[in-house]
Amino acid sequence: xxxxxxxxxxxxxxxxxxxxxxxxxxxxxxxxxxxxxxxxxxxxxxxxxxxxxxxxxxxxxxxxxxxxxxxxxxxxxxxxxxxxxxxxxxxxxxxxxxxxxxxxxxxxxxxxxxxxxxxxxxxxxxxxxxxxxxxxxxxxxxxxxxxxxxxxxxxxxxxxxxxxxxxxxxxxxxxxxxxxxxxxxxxxxxxxxxxxxxxxxxxxxxxxxxxxxxxxxxxxxxxxxxxxxxxxxxxxxxxxxxxxxxxxxxxxxxxxxxxxxxxxxxxxxxxxxxxxxxxxxxxxxxxxxxxxxxxxxxxxxxxxxxxxxxxxxxxxxxxxxxxxxxxxxxxxxxxxxxxxxxxxxxxxxxxxxxxx
Amino acid sequence: xxxxxxxxxxxxxxxxxxxxxxxxxxxxxxxxxxxxxxxxxxxxxxxxxxxxxxxxxxxxxxxxxxxxxxxxxxxxxxxxxxxxxxxxxxxxxxxxxxxxxxxxxxxxxxxxxxxxxxxxxxxxxxxxxxxxxxxxxxxxxxxxxxxxxxxxxxxxxxxxxxxxxxxxxxxxxxxxxxxxxxxxxxxxxxxxxxxxxx
Lengths: 356, 198
Fold this sequence. Notes:
With 356 residues, chain A is of the alpha+beta class. Helices cover 28% and strands 20% of the residues of chain A. Chain A has one domain.
């Protein structure tokens, strides 16, 4: 199918919207009616046709507008993209991985022609047609990591591996769930996760690190994570929290269906060949409550998950104050019927909402 | 002054030990204020003969006691900012096996540690001992400005004037804790200041 790219904004007038197709393929993150941290890793080897899992780097209707938003964030604050000096090689690895993947997975949108180290990259949606020399930074307008991540949806953490740990030594982070690359750069896996409640005690990070240290080339992995965002704001950064935090107080029973968004991160993990770094893309998908509620299974489940979530997690994810209003809204979409296992919408097999 | 026991916290928060004399040909001890006492506790004539002390009194009067230890080299700086280029120069010359000892406030230890890391010394090889003030070096996550010696929570950013709360999340690279706007969701509502650890 030919992708139609939305012309939309993730700030100010918030014209962001999901098509019916985008709603159906939204990565609903709850596979059962409750949620607790887990090392929920699986192989990233494709998935159902047209699902967000199908391609290595999913390109969707928001692509062009998201890249425009990223350029605005970086213009305002260049510190959102940083690479410590030893990470340049990993940047080239990442550029190669994305160019090869996208040109193979979306040949109608992206082309890569290679003649030795003379490369020709064509990005049709963004109107880019560049010739450059692979591994020669002077032939690109930005460093290799910045160049390619300005053309790829999702945040990118590039992790160095040494001393049996992973180190946040480079990244492009403009669509983050309230964490600062500029502050966390140079930290190890346990340090940058230090503020997360409960998960350390459950041994989650020790096990996750073991898994990640052993990811091999050609065998990427993935998991979903989630939080809540009022308005479809991609840049929920701590840097700008004093500007966007107030929006959390703008919810009313009338506007909550349109304003409250479930924010889901598709996190993937790829080993990079030359640097042995691990790249950790964090792709953000947003969906308004009212769009989620068009899927009866998701309506039932989201109510139960949010209702039963431990207080620490609702606080950490920043919606403890709005939870009562969310539950008032969501409870209307929960008729008490059982739900099927798994994250998929199951539109055809799940019963419609019972009205009483 | 009795030693302050920091409460257990998150994994990015530094923990400090107690200095001990280690074997080595070259010893660099950098301290501020009451950090002098940690040096005095481990000083022996033998150790001092191989030691370079860099000391910032911060209004205390331990300098004469340190000088009386007769270290191989002694420098008293009026402030960290005035001393940092000297510290960088000394670290540049550090030979393999240099023993680095830091003592005093978190701000001093953190900043020297960050310089030492830039000079190629792994942070795990540096000894630290906290003495004296528990005030923190804070970075405003919004404007990136550093406010030194923050003793209360919340506090006002000395650069952008936002009201900030004090987190335990710490960056070794920046040598500061993270400070975040406290009234973003309720502008103007700033809770009363409390001392840290109160």
